[in-house]
C-alpha cells in the first residue's frame, strides 16, 4: 500500500498510472504509480457478476483512480487516450487497438460492425431476418447476381436462373 500519512488518510481518491500488471493468474491486479510512490497489487474494477463477465486487458501507462487505497477504477479519457471518433450522447462505441469497431446509435437504430479481420459466428441454429438488404461477398450480390446453371442434373441444369422479366419471358404470355 502507499505509505499513508495523517494527511493522506484524509485523501480518499488518488490518480496515477498503471506501473505493473499481473500477466498470469489473477489478471485483474495492478500496481499503480501515484506521484512516484507505488501501491501494492490492487484489484482493478471490471464488469463482472453472475449474469455477465467482461474482461478488458489492463495496460501499463493507463491513467486510473484509486479509491481508499483498496481498488482501481480505470478508463479515464485523457490526452493519451481520447474518446473514439463519433462519441456522443446516443452512440455506444467499442474500439479495439487494431481498428476493429462496434457501435450502436440509438437515434439512427444502426449497429455497424467494422472488423479488420475475420468474423466467425458459431451456433446450433442461425436466422437472419430483414425487410430489405443484401449480402455482398467479393463484389457479388446475393440478391442481384445472375447466372445460368451449367450442369445438367436434377437441379435443372441449363435453366436460366435470371429473375423473370420481359427480355427472357416474351413468349410466355
TrEMBL record:
Superkingdom assignment = Bacteria
Spans annotated as Disordered: 148-173
Q: What is this protein called?
A: Gp5/Type VI secretion system Vgr protein OB-fold domain-containing protein
